Amino acid sequence: xxxxxxxxxxxxxxxxxxxxxxxxxxxxxxxxxxxxxxxxxxxxxxxxxxxxxxxxxxxxxxxxxxxxxxxxxxxxxxxxxxxxxxxxxxxxxxxxxxxxxxxxxxxxxxxxxxxxxxxxxxxxxxxxxxxxxxxxxxxxxxxxxxxxxxxxxxxxxxxxxxxxxxxxxxxxxxxxxxxxxxxxxxxxxxxxxxxxxxxxxxxxxxxxxxxxxxxxxxxxxxxxxxxxxxxxxxxxxxxxxxxxxxxxxxxxxxxxxxxxxxxxxxxxxxxxxx
Length: 274
Known about the structure:
Distance between the termini: 12 Å
Order of helices and strands: EHEHHEHEHEHEHHEHEH
Number of strands: 8
Mean pLDDT: 96
């Protein structure tokens, strides 16, 4: 079985130029970049206006591919699961632009999730809104030949897709080779599920992994080895289940002060585990 490809998520570099993330990915031995689509680095509206030339320059300079684009959404500034029809349409247009940009920069995948639908939407309303959203975005992805990666969130972040059953049900309703699921390790750990079951049950519809540590009682994304997760065993079971694809080490806002320091520590720890 091939080794997991380890990615650097650029969200943790948002107080520094984007180039620092690419430089660090290269010098620390990461395999690829997961590009965060937020301000000031790669916000969708900015890239739509300016093009992806700067992203291409960094890819070529550091020989570091962008394999996944993750536009910022779920409330900042858009959330397709909340608001009225006007707001839903704006969210759809925003994410459709993101799919086009993913294709333009040569990335094979775009990652997205389903934000919190609020406390007054019924279960049926949530299901209907989710399905029409996934159908529209998947149609765009098929047109652009971009694979959409649907990410479950923790129960502290959303009330839409927060478990393997939720994810499988969503994928069943919109069958397409351009829509697959993934696992952020914080999700099964906080909901009491085995992470490897995502791989086993979804099979060919499992396409991505976020590696992180967690405390078990929040949506915190903690430096691998500093939380409560038995990471070595979890990753071993995921590998035994047959997954050997992309795994982004998802350090986010908790490490903004010294992103280079923690990016190096994180990949050293994960490489030693693997």
